[in-house]
Amino acid sequence: MTSKDSQSSSIVSTSAMHASSGKANARIIGSAVAGVSELALFHPVDTVAKRLMSTETQLIALGSPAQTRMNLNNAIFRTCATEGLGQKAMSLFPGVGFGAAYKILQRVYKFGGQPVVLDMMTKRFGKDFDEKFGHKTGRTLLSATSGSLIGVGEIVLLPLDALKVKAQTAPEQLRGRGVVDIFRKEGFGLYRGAGLTAMRNAPGSFALFGGATAAKTWMGVGEDGVRATWTQDAIASCVGAVASISVAQPMDVVKTRIQNRPFDSPEGGMTIFRRLIQNEGFGGLFKGLTPKLIVIGPKLIFSFTIAQHLIGYFEHVLK
């Protein structure tokens, strides 16, 4: 090999490494900004949804609006149900420390990691998917499948999620205990509900990324280097978020109830599922779906839109 050839090869290699590094940085920055922004705006809303899902009694009293209001007030504000507006508002910010750690890591892992898995799957299986399903459908299925795999791996962060849920729904279980003490004593008990979490995340993430990609394909975005506008990213995020929340809701209800059980009195998913069906009917599996779609839906749409757009923007700037 001549000196000139060697120099050219070195330049190409360096350029490829720079492009790869730029992509990685873009995905970390975009998803981290999404996580921080989401936490700042939506933590109280998340607390309301978690408290509604963990309430095991009927909230809606048919024919009695006053009783319904009282039930919702007690379920949402707990010990501050009879306090003033200011204290009620502050009661919706428990677990913000755990929430910050969990949400930022989760968004970086999920929104930043899915494109990495997608790139790997596209290189290895892209032609096969194109031949079997056609290019557009194959592209959507690859995106959905890579999202599903990332969703299952999200259980690594489950301890932080469990502590956040306990702080939001049963703070007395954490009172007077330090983080190190909790991790040392509870150990793998913090992974309680990991199976159900994986069962929830797999179809939920499949629907999130698959729905978003399908919407972008329909809008003609993503092919030939065409970047989405803010509006197109928002529409794609909306489609993916609604599909994801609806598909994952039954498992989410059971998972939340597993996580808010006392440390010394755990219950399995099947036990909770059977009691839920017996006491609340199948409708209990979708308890909290409406507020999630109304208020948690925008949270996911908001963060997913920011992540998608900023990742695309920084990939273009840093390439």
What does this entry look like structurally?
With 319 residues, this protein is mainly α. Helix content is 77%, strand content 0%. The protein has eleven helices and no strands. The chain has helices at 3-54, 65-77, 85-90, 96-133, 135-153, 158-169, 179-186, 194-219, 230-259, 269-280, 289-318.
Could you write a compact summary of the structure shown?
By secondary structure, the protein is mainly alpha-helical.
Q: What shape does the CA trace take? A: globular
Element order, helices and strands? HHHHHHHHHHH
Q: Spans with pLDDT under 50 lasting ≥5 residues?
A: 6-16
Number of strand segments: 0
Q: Which structural class best describes the helix and strand composition?
A: mainly alpha
Strand content: under 5%
Distance between the termini: 29 Å
Mean pLDDT: 84
Tell me roughly what share of residues is in helical segments: over 70%
Distinct helical segment count: 11
Largest sheet: none
Q: Gyration radius, to the nearest Å?
A: 22 Å
What are the key terms here?
319 residues, mainly alpha, 0% strand
Please give the structural blueprint.
Layout: H1 3-54, H2 65-77, H3 85-90, H4 96-133, H5 135-153, H6 158-169, H7 179-186, H8 194-219, H9 230-259, H10 269-280, H11 289-318
Helix pairs in contact: 1-2, 1-4, 1-11, 4-5, 4-6, 5-8, 8-9, 9-11
